[in-house]
TrEMBL record, chain A:
This is Cytochrome d ubiquinol oxidase, subunit II. It is found in: Cell membrane. The keyword Isomerase does not apply. Pfam families: Cyt_bd_oxida_II (PF02322). It is a multi-pass membrane protein. InterPro entries: Cyt-d_oxidase_su2. Keywords: Cell membrane, Electron transport, Heme, Iron, Membrane, Metal-binding, Transmembrane, Transmembrane helix, Transport. The keyword Ribonucleoprotein does not apply. The chain crosses the membrane at residues 6-22, 83-103, 115-136, 156-177, 198-220, 226-246, 253-278, 298-325. It comes from Lactobacillus intestinalis DSM 6629. Belongs to the cytochrome ubiquinol oxidase subunit 2 family. Coiled coil: none annotated. The lineage of its organism: Bacteria, Bacillati, Bacillota, Bacilli, Lactobacillales.
TrEMBL record, chain B:
Its main location: membrane. It holds the Pfam family Cyt_bd_oxida_I. The chain crosses the membrane at residues 12-33, 53-71, 91-115, 127-150, 184-205, 226-248, 338-363, 375-397, 431-452. It comes from the Bacteria. This is Cytochrome d ubiquinol oxidase subunit I. It is a multi-pass membrane protein.
Length: 338, 475
């Protein structure tokens, strides 16, 4: 394993962590449109909190996919062809969600509820199946000697992956609630905080079940005991910290901690996988390894140079965009897409 | 049905649908940026209304373009996993660059542009739309770098059963890329300006009261669009011509098919305006020929023989063999599809160039006759749909003409497909995508039609009241 291979494994993890931190609250806000807002005005208010930024956040997922293709083509090929129908569902969710913003803005009043529903449903589908995919992946999937995965229904859907999917839905929903609390003014902000305060109790139950399943269903504890425990403690610790902040009304901190919970989850997955990228349930000799799944050194060098130059720029203008939209949303937007 | 056919069908369907919206949004973003530049330069509020009005049409196309683009990216891994394994070392990098250098810019600045009309200064707001336009142009560059490699592989070597990149510089200086990028981008800018000219014509055709100001905005839109249509149609045709000459050398099979040349011609090759080929017997019927024209088009001189598909097929059988990785090879490409696609594409391109010249003459100051004749407006209006036909035809030529290869001369389509994906999965995804695309297209058209009931004058702009979240100790 070369330095660059490890670096790119970490970078793929960073991209997914960035995706869950940023797009995570988008999905939460999307789901909150149907579960938190009472009327069309409040729904507009909620949607507007993410209107200008969701598109940029979703690019983290596209970049993670593209970077995986470029730096670990064997991983990309096995994962994407193996999770065919799951990815189809994720894409379906992303599509109905992605068009709903603009279509809603351009639709007559009586059609807006339909696009609100599509936004919520699309967000829910996408994030639930992403959870199912990642969690079933760390349990191990039937990957053969050629790196091809031929899985059955119960390889994808089992107690572990379903709990993982639900937990991810809950985590992103809470992250979204914290974001709404921070970004809105008026009753919706208070309601979002009340929801979050109550839901964190449910999350703790989910986290305990998830941790138990993780310890029994994966080899993480055997392979990386210390890192696994550290990540698990971080996940619970950040959840508790976020929860406490919702009570003391430290809205910015609550949001930061709920984001860090998601980051810790990604860290748990990537630490546990190392030095593998995919785990074969048939035989550990069929595991896809960082060393053999990666691109050539030359490609990794080119990619590293580009990333070192571009990522600071991306972060700079992303932060700048958030700074421009730093104000709280008080009243629903009126008009046509502006 | 086998997985290769289904995967190919899906690729064709997704690419065509995606490519309805890509040139649409690249082109309209650019034209909208020009409109806003005119507003900033002149301070004329008509240009601001114009920018906002047409900007919404651009935003609709962008939304659909983005979501179908995600399918494209995932599709390589889902349907073509062996291709991804073989080519990932080279193909993935441009794709990752597209995300890093283009998608982030596009999506961040489009958000900024949409929501900051009253928040930032005019100059900064203009900068946002130009960044969006730059993002769309950069995005096309990187994805076409990947496509150009598939058409004309350069800067690679085969190691351990897969292609590895040895020269990144060669990848982005690929001669194929120069022609392809130029042709696609000018075509996209032509698409954007044609659509705006056409939609403005539709607006003027409606039998209802239009305010004087809205009418002036439509007139200005048409005038600007004609100027751009003229420039970009000439550039598109010019680049297309260069690309065809390049094809004569690099992909003779594709070229021969676009001209329906089955048997190698004599020194003075005639050009068929129309022809009907029987792909089984290789008979060419009903052709109307212009003497020497094909030699002129191919070599820019009156003499020069053009190789026929039969001869090229024999050469390729000799070079690559009749079997690759257990698959029986056939190097013929669908000749009728390519022949007619080329004629539709080039025909409409020429028509757009002519219409833009006539349009410019008929809309010049003091002689605005175009607006007085309904039939003239109808011609412009109907041409709204021409770019979609042209763009689709262009891709049919490019991608069908590349068969049976995914990477020309290196890796075949049959080798590329995912071995572990079932026919049932592919069938499911094809049906899902087909339904989604149909529904999205219907909604998109309905929303544009609905939107066009408004006039630029009606576009209001109300911003929400804002308060600072950091004022009360959030941290």
């Amino acid at each position: 394993m070369s330095f660059l291979q490890i670096l790119w494994f970490v970078l793929i993890g960073v991209l997914f962590a960035g995706f869950f931190f940023l797009d995570g609250f988008d999905y939460g806000v999307g789901m909150a449109v149907e579960t938190l807002a009472y009327n069309e005005k409040e729904k507009s208010q909620v949607i507007e909190t993410i209107g200008p930024v969701w598109d940029g956040n979703e690019v983290w997922l596209i970049t993670a996919g593209g970077a995986m293709f470029a730096s670990f083509p064997y991983w990309y090929a096995t994962l994407f062809s193996g999770y065919y129908l799951i990815l189809l569902l994720i894409l379906f969710g992303l599509i109905i969600r992605g068009v709903s913003f603009e279509f809603r803005a351009q639709s007559p009043e009586y059609r807006k509820p339909f696009w609100d529903a599509m936004l919520a449903l699309g967000s829910l589908i996408a994030v639930f199946f992403l959870g199912v995919m990642f969690i079933s992946m760390i349990k191990g999937m039937p990957i053969d000697a050629n790196g091809n995965m031929k899985a059955q229904f119960f390889d994808y859907f089992n107690w572990f992956s379903i709990v993982g999917g639900v937990a991810l839905v809950l985590l992103t929903y809470l992250h979204g609630l914290n974001y709404i609390t921070l970004k809105t003014k008026g009753p919706i902000s208070d309601r979002a905080r009340n929801y979050a305060q109550a839901l964190y109790w449910v999350l703790y139950v989910g986290e305990v079940i998830f941790a138990l399943l993780l310890l029994f269903q994966t080899d993480f504890l055997r392979v990386h005991p210390i890192l696994t425990w550290v990540c698990l403690i971080l996940i619970v610790g950040f959840s508790v910290a976020a929860h406490i902040c919702t009570f003391s009304d430290k809205q910015g901190l609550a949001f930061t901690f709920s984001g860090l919970t998601l980051v810790s989850l990604v860290a748990l997955i990537f630490c546990g996988l190392f030095p593998r990228v995919m785990i074969s349930s048939i035989s550990s000799s069929y595991d896809l390894m960082i060393q053999s799944a990666s691109s050539s050194n030359y490609t990794l060098v080119i990619m590293t140079i580009a990333t070192v130059i571009l990522v600071p720029c991306i972060l700079a203008y992303t932060i700048w965009a958030y700074w421009i939209f730093r104000k709280r949303i008080e009243m629903p937007r009126v008009g046509d897409g502006y | 049905m086998n997985i290769v056919d289904l995967a190919r069908f899906q690729f064709a369907m997704t690419t065509i649908f995606h490519f309805f919206f890509v040139p649409f949004s690249i082109g309209t973003a650019f034209v909208v940026a020009i409109m806003e530049s005119m507003y900033v330069k002149t301070g004329n509020s008509q240009y601001k209304k114009m920018t906002k009005f047409w900007g919404n049409v651009f935003l609709l196309s962008f939304a659909v373009g983005v979501v179908t683009g995600i399918i494209q990216e995932f599709q390589f891994g889902m349907n073509w996993s062996d291709y991804s394994r073989f080519m990932g070392d080279i193909f993935g990098a441009p794709l990752a660059f597209e995300a890093l250098l283009a998608f982030f810019i596009e999506s961040t600045f489009i958000g900024l542009w949409m929501f900051t009309w009253n928040k930032v200064g005019k100059g900064l707001h203009l900068f946002f739309i130009w960044m969006v336009s730059f993002g769309t142009l950069a995005s096309a560059f990187w994805i076409l770098t990947a496509n150009a490699f598939m058409q004309h592989p350069v800067g690679y070597s085969i190691k351990g059963g897969r292609a590895v990149m040895v020269n990144f510089g060669a990848l982005i200086t690929n001669p194929q890329l120069g022609f392809e990028y130029g042709h696609v981008i000018f075509g996209a800018l032509l698409t954007g300006s044609t659509i705006f000219a056409g939609l403005a014509a539709f607006q003027l055709l409606k039998k209802r009261a239009i305010s004087k100001e809205s009418k002036q905005i439509y007139h200005k839109t048409m005038r600007l669009s004609f100027v751009l249509m003229f420039i970009f149609s000439i550039l598109t045709i010019g680049l297309g011509d260069l690309q065809m000459q390049y094809l004569v050398k690099e992909q003779p099979m594709k070229f021969a098919a676009t001209e329906a040349v089955m048997k190698t011609t004599g020194e003075r090759a005639p050009w068929s305006v129309i022809a009907f080929v029987n792909p089984k017997t290789h008979e060419v019927k009903g052709n109307i020929d212009i003497p020497d024209m094909l030699s002129i088009l191919s070599y820019h001189k009156t003499t020069g023989s053009v190789k026929g598909m039969e001869e090229i097929n024999k050469e390729m059988e000799k070079k690559y063999g009749t079997r690759i990785a257990g698959h029986k090879m056939n190097y013929y490409v669908p000749v009728n599809t390519l022949f007619w696609s080329f004629r539709f594409m080039a025909g409409f391109g020429t028509l757009l160039a002519l219409v833009s010249i006539v349009g410019l003459i008929m809309t010049r100051k003091g002689h605005e006759t175009l607006y007085k004749h309904r039939w003239c407006l109808w011609v412009v209006a109907i041409l709204t749909f021409a770019p979609f036909i042209m763009n689709t035809c262009g891709w049919l030529i490019t991608e069908f003409g590349r068969q049976p290869w995914t990477v020309y001369g290196v890796f075949t389509t049959a080798q590329s497909v995912s071995p572990n994906v079932s026919v049932a999965s592919l069938l499911t995804s094809n049906i899902v995508y087909f339904c989604l695309f149909t529904i999205l297209a219907i909604i998109m058209i309905a929303l544009v039609v609905r939107y066009l009931r408004k006039d630029p004058d009606d576009i209001e702009n109300q911003e929400p009241k804002l308060a600072d979240p950091f004022a009360k100790g959030a941290f």
